[in-house]
UniProtKB/TrEMBL annotation, chain A:
GO terms for cellular component: plasma membrane. SUPFAM superfamilies: P-loop containing nucleoside triphosphate hydrolases. Residues 21-272 form the ABC transporter domain. SMART domains: AAA (SM00382). Keywords: ATP-binding, Cell membrane, Membrane, Nucleotide-binding, Transport. This is ABC transporter ATP-binding protein.
From TrEMBL, chain B:
It is found in: Cell inner membrane. Residues 6-256 form the ABC transporter domain. It comes from Limobrevibacterium gyesilva. One of its GO terms (cellular component) is plasma membrane. This is ABC transporter ATP-binding protein. GO terms for biological process: peptide transport; transmembrane transport.
């Protein structure tokens, strides 16, 4: 078995391929004293085979809740997950029995989190943590699993794989731990990898290594990646398409180049402008978005961004705009889109 | 010529590594290992580097929040390297720090009004109604409403809490403020607000800053000069534009190349630097960067490079630039 036995996906025709993951009207609610907190409020998106979809948003936007809900990693209660469907390889994850969900997780549908230290088992060697899913999900023998583990560790760029397999997580540096985490996540050749802030805890030079690695593995294995991050620059360099979240909803989607070049939603526009870039002559003031992200549960009646939006009028404060198709392969939820 | 506010020479801060049983020192972590810095009044110096580079320890040692092992710290031409702690206290009025996470440095049981009045009372500058008035003036200065004084830290958003942290640092009219990743924990849309606030206050109050950050975009926006640290040493320093657009040290080049750009279409020049930063407890011999350096020569493994001064106040410690 090799990792390169699938050809790299042809992304030019990505629009024609059927989605490998389709999230349809996902909701995550929490009961709080005096009401309901809508952490995720009707999120829909498609993830196509071999593509990277960036889900970007600030803290409280609901991006992590979206990923935890579709992986069914939220405790219910207190969380309440609803939705039309989360279709993955022909099955609705929202209605799958817990046992089948457990079988899927870590095999066909896998994940990498920000801090590998909290998701790696501290008292199990790296090698055993990779062997385990291979034996459990793929039914490999112990010897075959060990050989495959060494191959995987080498593949993610860990030097001296056989020796690395015998160490415990705390003996590795942050970058090496994240590589080990990726090896575990990719062990069973998942068709979808959910990567939630996979490089946020890492230094930039190590971040560059990990992003390069994810890209290379994606090309070899054809894995679709849902990349969740607050960092627009990481999205710009890694993702094919992007969905921008604000206050529990997707406010804009589109191909990365088009969306970044001419954002339609004023929030996206504000975010892109407010990033400090390394430029020869910086402006005296960075453009800011006034105010702050509304706390979930305190959302205004109209567009959630209206109180901070320079273009908002009475319509924006009155009615919430739905996500509508706009231009080619793009969507926006705004009454007064930019570049419209 | 502006007054030289701070001068740091050959600063070293070592932390002992103790043996497990007898707690005897068996080695040292050389967090700061021979740092020179100069800062003119009214200037903004950025210190950049990755985790473990010693940038935070450098900042804390300058403020004497961490004890220096060796070297010299001159603040307002006065040697403060070995001042006893009771003499440090009055000095704290003149040099302050702003941390990354204001929540961990704001007392959760005190109202913001009391938090901001405390510096005046502790240093015997003002008390009672006068301290309260001054606290109210601080809130205005950082753009918070007067009602904020009656509320507790947890009632504020991250950006507002950082405003409170900045207000407290400004209470005693310091000349030098060290910001240790002051905007790193904030969302992008809030980060710009705090950066603009820091810049405005610097101009209005004639402050001098040392801004410690791993975010090169942030540093390039606020700083006049930048120092790049690697394994406890400054490997390159110089005026902002020279450092970002004409970097000399291979590490600075790699660091700049690794920063992802939010502008697609921007040609990718990600030079992937291999390996990890070595442990400061056991730094490589010669130039500490040589095991990861794409341009290392035989000499780099043998001999630590001296600092060379290039035209325009650009300094680099690398064998590619012989003295």
């Amino acid at each position: 078995m090799t990792l390169a036995d699938t050809t790299a996906p042809d992304l030019s025709s990505a629009a024609n391929t059927a989605p490998v993951l389709r999230v349809d009207d996902l909701h995550v609610h929490f009961r709080i004293p005096g009401g309901v907190m809508r952490a995720v409020d009707g999120v829909s998106f498609d993830l196509r085979r071999g593509e990277t979809l960036g889900l970007v948003g600030e803290s409280g936007s609901g991006k992590t809740m979206t990923s935890l809900a579709l992986l069914r990693l939220l405790e219910t209660p207190p969380a309440q997950i609803d939705g039309k469907a989360v279709m993955f390889e022909g099955r609705d994850l929202l209605r799958l029995p817990e046992r089948e969900m457990t079988d899927l997780r870590g095999s066909r549908l896998s994940m990498v989190f920000q801090e590998p230290m909290t998701s790696l088992n501290p008292i199990m060697t790296i090698g055993r943590q990779i062997d385990e899913p291979l034996v459990r999900h793929l039914g490999l023998t112990a010897a075959a699993a060990r050989a495959r583990t060494h191959e995987l560790l080498g593949l993610v760029g860990i030097p001296r794989p056989a020796q690395a397999a015998t160490v415990y997580p705390h003996q590795l540096s942050g970058g090496m731990r994240q590589r080990a985490m990726i090896a575990i996540a990719l062990a069973c050749r998942p068709s979808v990898l959910v990567a939630d802030e996979p490089t946020t805890a890492l230094d930039v030079t190590i971040q560059a290594q990990i992003l390069e690695l994810l890209e290379q593995l994606q090309q070899e294995m054809g894995t679709a990646i849902l990349l969740i991050t607050h960092d627009l620059a990481v999205i710009a360099e890694t993702a094919h398409r992007v969905a921008v979240m604000y206050a529990g909803r997707i406010v804009e989607t589109g191909p990365v180049a088009a969306l970044f070049a001419a954002p339609l939603h004023p929030y996206t526009e504000g975010l892109l402008r407010s990033i400090p870039r390394v430029v020869r002559t910086p402006a005296a003031e960075l453009p800011e978005i006034p105010g702050f992200v509304p706390a979930p549960g305190t959302l205004p009646a109209g567009c959630a961004f209206a109180p901070r939006c320079a273009y908002a009028d009475a319509a924006c404060h009155g009615t919430r705009p739905a996500l509508q198709p706009a231009l080619s392969d793009r969507e926006v939820a705004c009454w007064k889109p930019r570049h419209g | 010529m502006a007054e030289q506010l701070l001068r740091v020479r050959n600063l070293r801060t070592y932390f002992p590594i103790l043996s497990k049983v007898l707690r005897r020192p068996v080695g040292h972590v050389r967090a700061v290992d021979g740092v020179d810095l100069d800062l003119a009044a009214g200037e903004v110096l950025g210190i950049v580097g990755e985790s473990g580079s010693g940038k935070t320890t450098t900042g804390k040692t300058i403020l004497r929040l961490t004890e220096p092992t060796d070297g010299e710290i001159l603040f307002e031409s006065r040697d403060i390297t070995r001042l006893p702690q009771r003499e440090i206290m009055p000095l704290r009025q003149r040099m302050q720090i702003v941390f990354q996470d204001p929540m961990s440095s704001l007392n959760p049981r005190m109202t913001v009004g009391r938090i901001l009045a405390a510096p005046f009372e502790i240093h015997g500058v003002a008390r009672g109604a006068e301290a309260r008035d001054r606290a109210a003036a601080l809130l205005r200065l950082v753009g918070l409403p007067a009602e904020a004084a009656q509320r507790y830290p947890h009632e504020f958003s991250g950006g507002q809490r950082q405003r409170i942290g900045i207000a407290r640092a400004l209470a005693l009219r310091p000349r030098l403020i060290i910001g240790d990743e002051p905007v790193s924990a904030l969302d992008v849309s809030i980060q710009a607000q705090i950066m603009n606030l820091l810049k405005r206050l610097q101009g209005e109050l004639g402050l001098t800053y040392i801004l410690i950050s791993h975010n090169l975009g942030v540093v390039s926006h606020i700083c006049d000069r930048v120092a790049v640290m690697y394994l406890g040493r400054v490997v390159e320093s110089g005026p902002r534009e020279a450092l970002f657009f004409d970097p000399k040290h291979p590490y600075t080049e790699a660091l700049l190349a690794a920063v992802p750009s939010p502008d697609p279409g921007h040609t990718r020049r990600r030079v992937v630097l291999g390996g990890d930063m070595p442990s400061p407890a056991n730094p490589p011999g010669g130039c500490a960067f040589h095991p990861r350096c794409p341009r290392a020569m035989a000499r780099c493994a043998q001999e630590a490079p001296a600092t060379t001064t290039l035209p325009g106040g650009h300094m680099v410690a690398c064998h590619l630039y012989p003295a």
